[in-house]
Queue: 3 jobs
Job 1
Amino acid sequence: MKVLIPYSGGVNSVYALWRWLNETTHEIVAVYASEKWDKALERAPREEAAADQIAAWLQDVRAFEYRKIEWPVEYVSDVRPLRSGFTNVWDQGAVEPRYHGYAALLDAEEFDGIVTGYSLENTAVNAYQNLRGIFERPSVNCYLAGSPILETIIPQGKALDFNKVCATLNGRFEQAEALPSDLAAMIISKCETRCDPLAKDGTAKLCMSCLYLDVAELHTDMSGVEIDTAFAKHGSYGKWRSKADPKTYTYRGNSQMKALELLGIKL
């Protein structure tokens, strides 16, 4: 079987690539493309360098094809509700080019499966539900990075019970914990300098990427599953999706506040 794994060098895609290399003998093609929206462009050089380093490390697990491409469509802002019927919004356009990229790759050559990085924390919004039709192909099995059973085929079209799938996925903390420590250490923070929420010099910033790292480093007393669960329950995603209030819900339930709670920080 020939399997396409879109790969960013982030936790979800590294975990997916590592598992599929370790647990299968399938032909694996990993494809990297940098995102082109504003904040992503700022960190693109560091992320690309880390992605290359990680890919080189994984070649020692077993050989696979590693490609670097440009997405076939440009970023265009598309601000819409977090979920259907919700009041607060987010920019779905930031992720849409990658879905068109998946489609272009699947149409250009014969793949039997595609593994997208969709995992627990991504279930906070409806991006996969909204955009999956762009790349779904009856001849290509769809798999998700967050599926605990590796080769779980995700239904397509009307056959997908989206909320049911969201309730089964694992998340970034469990995934990072499962990775070999030296591999996990190569996954960079999205900020070049770790953000400090308590900085007194005017640089204080509630950066979720840095807060995730702070939580993981502090809470060695909690398993990755326990940390993922704490965030998912607070953020009304995963199996708690139905708890979100459509009128007040914010992106991932304002997970910065849960991070600060876990860190014992009161602003």
Job 2
Amino acid sequence: MPILQWMTRDRDLKAADTVPYRLLERDAALSVGEAASGNMLIQGDNLEALKSLLPYYRGQVKCIYIDPPYNTRSAFEHYDDSLEHSEWLAMIYPRLELLRDLLAEDGSIWVSIDDNEGHYLKVLMDEVFGRDNFIAEIIWQKRTSRENRAAIGSAHDTILAYARMPPKEWKPLRNKLPPKESGYSNPDKDPRGPWRSIPFSAQGHRPNQMYKIQPPVGEALDPPRGRCWGATEPVYLQYLADDMVYFPKGGAGRPRIKQFPSADDGLVPMTLWLAEDVGTTETAKREILGLFDDAIPFATPKPEKLIDRVIHIATNPGDLVLDSFLGSGTTAAVAHKMGRRWIGIEMGDHAVTHCAPRLRKVIEGEQGGISKTLGWQGGGGFDFYRLGDPVFDTDGTIAADIGFATLAAHIWFSETEVPSPAGGAAFGASPFLGAYDGAGLALLYNGILGDKRVSGGNVLTRTTLAMVRAAAGDFAGPITIYGEANRLGADTLKAERITFKQTPYDVRAR
């Protein structure tokens, strides 16, 4: 597969690995509503924030939507969108790698972009997510007014959609769009109510579906050229008996089947998303100004109906949605109203001045955007976080003030490459962290056994091993134990099926 080359590519391919793990520090003053909602608003560099989320959320995000800077070579009010081309590629590549690691096996990622970097982004995403996992390039009509200053006016942006699995496997997981109410009528006064008609033909040549149909007016009809009827003749006759067949052209046309709203299972999403269905940039600006009188909207904000469509297709209630370029907070606001859990990351001050206040209004029941359509009345909550100190010092050793639960979550992730049980909440009361794939994991650190002496609870001895075994309960398999030192001999470790790793030296910093 062809790959994209740029000046700093070799360095940028390793950038995600060199990002330090940082603590996420909760700000109670900016957190709102239910404390156990699981929703997170994070202020800080999104590359570092994504790395910090890995020990807790790897492989758990069902839908990622991002709207990164478009690199239009013009400065916007809230961020610099004038990166050189190679710098833009260097910025986006490691973020895509971390987003891929956070994405669930049945998840999907949707990236808004325009034609300044869109074609290059497609090649990068082919490399990171796999060309075979490409779902679609969606055209969003972002404006309806004519742009007379341009040689050819720009009326659309692009959304690139990828899954972690091939689209044919992901297709059964996606949701269809709700059927449109328009298109239904009742010209024959059917007592069952309004209906619309769909063709009664299918591709191919099936011998048992190649029969003549007599319409009310005119001669008997064959199927359309190159096609067959949509069902066998006995099925058609049952449709006819049930008054489910409609003949257009005054009764002389080929048969069509009545479809009532109750039987309509929805519409297959198409790649053209019109302004009349999902709104425009101007729609989004009005939504933001409706929330904040003095707000200065982003240059290309996204309307709530656009994000609603993405989340509807890609998720179900309770699923986790992530936006690491949160901007004015639209993705989090829409996900909240739709009953999804969410994580939003925004670097600038408007994480405090725009995102947090907007989401507070959502919780209070604001009626903008999609609220009235969904019957949104408010509720829920979110926790506000900032990026704290790195888990490791610059020389790769554990920072002095790192608590047991934080280090345990990191060690669990580095050993198993899966998120911490219960989001890390299970760590902190026992040296035995749990078992994964038939092997146990334990940590002797920070006085978890009530003894911080060098020769005490942080050291593997027969006494501390007995305490680890007791904490492990019925688990009798091999255990990897992290600690400051080991006082057991090689024969004892082998007999007990213990692998000892020394902190801080054997803790992988990256």
Job 3
Amino acid sequence: MRIRTVVLLGCVLSLMIACATSPLGRKQLMLVSGSQMDSMGAQAFQQLKAKTPIDSDPIKMQYVQCIVKPLTEVATQHYTHLPSSWEVVVFQDESSNAFALPGGKIGVHTGILKTAQTDAQLAAVIGHEIGHVIAQHGAERMSQQAGTQLGLIALGAITPDNPKKNMLMGLLGVGIQVGVILPFSRTQESEADLIGLDLMAQAGFDPTQSVELWKNMMAAAGGKSPPEWLSTHPAGESRIRNLGEHMLPALNHYQAAQSAGQLHRCPRP
């Protein structure tokens, strides 16, 4: 019975597996379709708008839209799975955050307008968030979690009578969290950093400001972030180093945008 259960789970997993490739060439597990993610993104955005106060200041919205528009134009030119139009909302929230959701939804918290001190720095933030959508990181993470749950079910089926079953399941869960899920999340964050770096440069925003942004973020955090090996995000120093190592191609894109007259200057509110 145990063997039959494990074999069945293996067959289900093998039937579900679909492979994709990220924009940076990394193999991805995809068990969720783009249309499903778009639907979930739209639903989540509606819920956020219902629960979170919206900042209706037209000057702030104009500033954010001035940055978002060239970024999404470049993104949709290069990635056909993205929507042609994006809904943008500024939320009254003092946290230094912004996000993009599948289905063409972008939210910007008023708090990030303090940390991102230039239009190019805010372009780095929003470009990073669009990078997550471009690389379909949400679908990938959901797929990974589904695979993890199947693995735990399989272990439970193999060892139902083991007196140390609960301890084994707990250790495996911790091992997966620290050894797979957290580094996996850091990989996604690093990918989004580089996709966003390229995106902002092609859109006509100075890519070197991405480094200045992370200096601001580190200063705002005041050294309170957890150790990198226990975090879903890379340490600020790692992000700055990674961006610096990939700055030359971004500067080439920025110079090409300058030559084409595709520079954007968005006055801060």
